[in-house]
Amino acid sequence: MYTPTLLRSSLLATALLVPLLAPAPLAGQGFGTVLTQTNAPAGNEVSVSLRLPNGNLLPFGSYATGGAGTGGGLGSQGALAESGDGRLVFAVDAGSNEVTMFRRLFGVFLWRLDREGTGGTQPTSVAAHGRLVYVLNAGSDTVRGFRRRGADLAPIPGAVYGLSQAGAAAAQVGFSPDGAFLVVTERATNRIGVFRVLPNGTLGAGNFQPSAGPTPFGFQFRGDGTLVVSDAAGGAAGASVASSYRILPNGTLQVVSGAVPTNQAAACWIAIPRGGEFAYTTNTADGTLSGFSLDDAGALRLLDPSGVTGDLGAAARPIDFEFTRNGRLLYVLDSGADEIRAFLRTNDGGLVPLATRVTLADGAAGLLAR
To answer: Do residues 293 and 309 make contact, with C-beta atoms less than 8 angstroms apart?
Structure first.
């Protein structure tokens, strides 16, 4: 934990050092951070890397959650989440069945505020909207709700909800942009669950519907409510797809684009840059990224016939990834080499690799980019 004197000294040192290390910035790109979590069984930590204006990363510091990780892949999207204003960061502690809340200070420091049990086993994904926080307990096939009250996370009485069945192998929980719905993907059942969020923060009955593609995994919403889902197809070679949906007022999923091929294997994570004209998958088994155009109606079209818009190499195993707020820089957690990789997105949706790399602990999970 930083003392005030050490905090001021560290900030001063950073302020003096950064101008010496930063080459010419990308247009409109300031400083920022990239966060991952170590997921270590002996003590989970959130690792912070300082992002320079040219996209390069510098390891900055690590902050203990107070809980434990599993030491292995979580098989989920959303192991880290943040509040809408970016001031709060939430991390799952899958090894100790907890969730931790941090306050972000000066953009790069994390101050632990609270840690709570999730009321289930193996929490792997967390989502926040307003004062509500929901956690997916993948081991016990439930979602659990909390309400943020100042520096505390308070469990919402009775807000524990079962998934469609035991052994659902759920991969992610997330809110729609307006906070009206909570969505969960289930890999083992090929279903997507939609819960209405009630005014008191509890949920209505889950509406579990067939996915347009097999093995729905990660997802992200565009600002207009379009839901884009990666479908891993059980990891079969060349068989992964991506699908897009609208959520109707009654919670029913309306398919816009069903099962658009990536021509790659194990498409598991989704990222949509600012502007919402494109969507991308990480193809874990092939070490590649697939890009799609995303039109106003929410329809997907593969950018490259091969499905390879970005290539990390045959030994790479890309999992979590996210764009910075302006949508130009993309950071990818490569679980094969245990490092963060980076790409610059071009105006036509192409991805240009950057040389920067940051080494991570084996088993690291989750990624936030700002």
So the answer is: no
| Sheet with 227-231, edge to edge strand ranges | 216-221, 227-231, 241-247, 253-261
Stretch (H or E) spanning 134: strand 132-137
Report the C-alpha gap between 327 and 42 in whole angstroms: 35
Q: Mean pLDDT over residues 49-69, rounded?
A: 97
Report yes or no: 329 and 346 within 8 Å, Cβ to Cβ. Answer: no
Q: Taking Cα atoms as reference points, which of 184, 172, 179, 186 lies closest to residue 147?
A: 179
276-302: string of b/e by CB count within 10 Å (b at 16+)? bbbbbbbbbbbbbbbbbebeeebebeb
Q: What pLDDT does residue 16 have? A: 37
Contact 231, 242 (CB under 8 A): yes
> Which burial class, exposed, middle or buried, applies to 54 when counting CB atoms under 10 A from its CB (0-12, 13-18, 19+)?
middle
Please give the model's pTM, rounded to 2 decimal places: 0.92
Place of tokens 């490259």: 304
- DSSP helix/strand/coil, 309: coil
Which DSSP state fits 233?
G
> 26: pLDDT confidence band, cut at 50, 70 and 90?
low
Cα separation, 234 vs 330, whole angstroms: 26
Collapsing DSSP states into helix, strand and coil, what is residue 100? strand
**pLDDT given at position 30:** 86
The per-residue pLDDT for 28 is 56
Give the pLDDT confidence of 101-136 residue by residue, as tens digits.
999 999 999 999 999 999 999 999 999 999 999 999
Two structure tokens written together for 119: 């009321």
